[in-house]
Specification:
mainly alpha; globular
């Protein structure tokens, strides 16, 4: 039987736009619009000014940030947009997996589509691929990651974002398998923010996007990761779910 990363790679590499039901595409567009609206609202809060101000001190870039005049490098823009979408905690949540999937998948799809000059239709397809992957992987955990101190959004969404970025970069099946394996070494997010209401919770979705984009670029250049990303001896399920 194929490994989980192989099955997800097959799905991400081969699904066509017209295979996605119209109702799903309509719902996805609604969720993206909702995420963009929350991001715009977040720009009026101090945490947004702090984050974007800090990221602006790095090298200049041309990737847009929702609702602000500054442009950032691709990964910094994805991080900033993730902070904005998740910043007020009103973004959608997949309840079984306890994953704020849009806060990661939308900024990643938006940034990667911009970087690779893809259409809005292609962006939405990649977003749907990521949402499906995040929901399925998160459903395995069923909230248990929260109980042992991991923030599922920061951990689970990194793999979904690798598939999104890889799809928009035109990676093949094998490269998408590798991208997920590479993301395993980067996916992170601790719930210690809850001890004092720290800002880091807002950072996790965008950081998952940074991980996914980085993993996809590395995989596209031939860099390798483990194949048994999820079910291996030291894979995600063993290390994060025992």
């Amino acid at each position: 039987m194929a490994l989980i990363a192989e099955q997800l790679a097959d799905f991400a590499a081969h699904i066509k736009d017209d295979q996605i039901p119209a109702a799903v595409r309509h719902r996805a567009a609604h969720l993206v619009l909702d995420g963009a609206g929350i991001a715009l609202a977040s720009t009026t809060f101090e945490f947004a000014h702090q984050a974007i101000g800090a990221l602006s001190t790095f090298e200049p870039g041309h990737c847009p940030v929702i609702g602000v005049a500054q442009s950032l490098t691709l990964r910094d823009a994805v991080l900033a947009n993730g902070i904005l979408v998740h910043g007020l905690d009103f973004d959608d949540t997949h309840l079984t997996g306890v994953v704020h999937a849009t806060a990661s998948c939308f900024p990643t799809a938006l940034g990667a589509a911009w970087a690779h000059h893809k259409s809005g239709r292609e962006m939405l397809t990649a977003y749907i691929i990521g949402m499906e992957a995040a929901a399925r992987l998160g459903s395995v955990a069923k909230g248990e990651m929260n109980q042992i101190g991991f923030h599922p959004t920061g951990v689970i969404a990194a793999f979904a974002c690798a598939l999104i970025a890889g799809r928009l970069a035109g990676l093949d099946r094998e490269q998408l398998v590798m991208a997920q394996g590479i993301a395993l070494s980067m996916a992170a997010g601790t719930r210690e923010y809850s001890s004092n209401g720290a800002s880091t919770k807002r950072m996790h979705p965008g950081w998952a996007g940074v991980c996914g984009i980085t993993a996809a670029r590395l995989a596209g250049s031939g860099f390798t990761g483990p194949r048994s990303t999820y079910e291996g001896r030291f894979g995600l399920f063993a290390t994060h779910l025992n």
